[in-house]
Design brief:
Elements: E1 2-6, E2 20-23, E3 29-32, H1 35-41, E4 49-54, E5 57-62
Antiparallel strand pairs: 1-5, 2-3, 4-5
Length: 67
């Protein structure tokens, strides 16, 4: 399974779910996803994912199934 996240600036009155970026180290950034989205995809803690940049956002896919 994969998810597509469009890249846009979140506005304060936006009703869309907002993900957060957290700096983890000098060269690492964490994307916080809504828990219900992760559960619906069946993803687990420490699961490996692939991140691809596409035209208007990013695509996150499972590293094993590549879907």
């Amino acid at each position: 399974m994969s998810i597509y996240m469009p890249v846009y600036m979140a506005k304060s009155k936006s009703k869309k779910p907002v993900s957060h970026l957290i700096r983890l180290g000098p060269s690492s950034t964490v994307v916080v996803l809504p828990a219900n989205l992760v559960r619906s995809l069946g993803w687990k803690k420490h699961q490996r994912v692939l991140i691809r940049r596409i035209a208007r956002g990013i695509k996150i896919i499972d590293a094993r199934t590549k879907q």
